[in-house]
């Protein structure tokens, strides 16, 4: 099945989510990816937060990425289906903020994203009898 790791570097000012989607779309057909970790800072984060008006919140400033997780699965047409991208980040005062990314995710520093890729068989996976 061949699990491989990849380092994706995101430059200051680039959208991290767009860079990950682009990487996913450039992967060979039938390849799924999962975000294992990320290191760096973000300047603008849009996350889904049901408790806010409109259901989303936009944070602007200088925030350190604590955790970035998600997955993208191939569809029948070869496109990538977002399995969700979640972020946890900390503000300069140490407060932790997080949610599901629902818009821009702009890098404030160079961001390194570690991605795992593997062949994805979807519903064609064989089941083993016990």
From TrEMBL:
<keyword id="KW-0804">Transcription</keyword>
<dbReference type="Pfam" id="PF03479">
    <property type="entry name" value="PCC"/>
</dbReference>
<protein>
    <recommendedName>
        <fullName>AT-hook motif nuclear-localized protein</fullName>
    </recommendedName>
</protein>
<keyword id="KW-0238">DNA-binding</keyword>
<dbReference type="InterPro" id="IPR039605">
    <property type="entry name" value="AHL"/>
</dbReference>
<feature type="domain" description="PPC">
    <location>
        <begin position="1"/>
        <end position="130"/>
    </location>
</feature>
<dbReference type="GO" id="GO:0005634">
    <property type="term" value="C:nucleus"/>
</dbReference>
<keyword id="KW-0539">Nucleus</keyword>
<keyword id="KW-0805">Transcription regulation</keyword>
<comment type="function">
    <text>Transcription factor that specifically binds AT-rich DNA sequences related to the nuclear matrix attachment regions (MARs).</text>
</comment>
<dbReference type="InterPro" id="IPR005175">
    <property type="entry name" value="PPC_dom"/>
</dbReference>
<dbReference type="GO" id="GO:0003680">
    <property type="term" value="F:minor groove of adenine-thymine-rich DNA binding"/>
</dbReference>
């Amino acid at each position: 099945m061949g699990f491989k790791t990849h380092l994706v570097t995101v430059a200051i000012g680039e959208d991290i989510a767009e860079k990950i989607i682009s990487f996913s779309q450039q992967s060979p057909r039938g390849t799924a990816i999962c975000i294992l970790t990320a290191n760096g800072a973000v300047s603008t984060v849009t996350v889904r937060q049901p408790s806010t008006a409109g259901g989303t919140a936009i944070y602007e400033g200088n925030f350190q990425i604590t955790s970035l997780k998600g997955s993208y699965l191939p569809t029948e047409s070869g496109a990538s289906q977002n399995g969700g991208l979640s972020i946890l980040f900390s503000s300069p005062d140490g407060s932790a903020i997080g949610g599901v990314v629902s818009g821009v995710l702009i890098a404030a520093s160079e961001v390194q994203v570690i991605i795992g890729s593997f062949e994805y068989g979807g519903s064609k996976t064989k089941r083993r009898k016990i």
